[in-house]
Amino acid sequence: MNCHQCQQNCHSVKQKRSWWKRLTNKYRPEPVLAVDGTIALVGTPNVGKSVLFNRLTGIYVTVSNYPGTTVEVSRGIAKIQDYRVRVIDTPGMYSLVPISEEEQVARDLLLQESLDVAIHVVDAKNLGRMLPLTFQLIEAGLPVILAVNMMDEAEQLGLKVRSEALQTELDIPVVLMSAALNRGIRELKQTIIQYLSSPSNQPLINLEVAT
Question: Domain residues for 71?
């Protein structure tokens, strides 16, 4: 036997196996992770949804087109205490009555996914203009948390949000936050856990969390 020739053949086989391994790894489906609940981030464009999504997730994130569209939807997994929670970042929307493909996709996600919580992210500086969507989400029967984001910018303008009064009026949890500064993230996670751990899937409203 020609050892030199044999070594060359062996090396060739190893190269082929290595090429095949890289190819199969590239197209291998991502693992399906068991989760304890599903939440969706909802809101108009430019309210900090993506920043909040990045703050919550980190274990596993995917971005893909919603079936039959060119609209991208981000999905990830958040580890909150002992819970593994699926997080969906819906496309920006102004109303549950869609007038664009993005709004149609967001509406379909909200109404077709088995959601435990819909987190409506709003800009504290333009709260009045964004609350109509909050009312629509509540009227649609969705479990809603109102995340009043960008509080740092509102405070710089001298604006104040009376979270307790807002929470009482809406009868849903309200969390004041600045996701970009990591403010209010802990309080939001606590409120999410209240939803997931409540037998009726409705949290006991804690005014101390929202202040």
Answer: 32-210
d(CA 78, CA 187): 15
φ and ψ of 94, to 5 deg: -110, -20
- Domains identified in the chain, total number: 2
pTM of the model: 0.78
Per-residue pLDDT of the chain (211 residues; tens, 9 = 90+): 555 555 555 554 445 555 555 544 544 444 445 678 999 999 999 999 999 999 999 756 788 778 888 788 999 999 998 899 999 999 999 999 999 999 999 999 999 888 999 999 999 999 999 999 999 999 999 999 999 999 999 999 999 999 999 999 999 999 999 999 999 999 999 999 998 887 555 554 443 333 3
